[in-house]
Amino acid sequence: MAEPTVTGAVSSAAAASGARPASPRRKWTDSPHLWFWVFVGPFVAGLLVFIVIPILWSVWLSFYDARNTVTPTHFVGLQNYSRMLGDSAFRSSLVTFVLFAVFIVPTTFVLSLGLAVLVNGVTRGKAFFRSVFFLPTACSYVVAAMIWRHSLFGGTAAGMVNTVLGWLGAAPIAWLSVVHPPWYWLVLVTVRLWLQVGFFMVLFLAALQRVPQQLYEAAALDGATGWKAFRYITFPQLRATSTAVLMLLLVNAFQAFDEFYNVLSTTGGYPPYARPPLVYLFNIALGNGQDFGDGSAGAVILTLIIAIFALLQGRLTGIGRRDSA
Amino acid sequence: MFSIMKRYSTVGTPSRRQLLAAGGGILAAGALAACGGNTGRSSGGGGTGGTGGGSGTISQWYHQYGEAGTEQAVKRYAAAYKKATVQVQWIPGNYDQKSAAALLTASGPDVFEYGNGPTIDMITGKQVVDLTELYGAAKSDFTASLLDRMTWKGKIYGIPQVVDMQLFVYRKSMLQKAGVQPPETLDDLITAAAKLTTGKVKGLFLGNDGGAGILAGPVLWSSGHDYLTSDNQPDFANADVASALGKFHDLFTSGHLLLGAPTDWSDPGAITSGLTAIQWTGLWNFPMLQDKLGDDFGVLPFPAIGGSGKPSVPVGAYASCVSAKAKDVDAAKAFVKWLWVDQTADQLDFAQSYGFHVPSRASLIAKATKLKSGEAKTAAGYLKTYGHPQTPLLWSPKSATTMTDAVDKIVRSGANPTSSLAGVAKTVQAELKRIGG
Question: Nearest Cα to A198, choosing from A128, A115, A118, A126?
Answer without folding.
Answer: A115
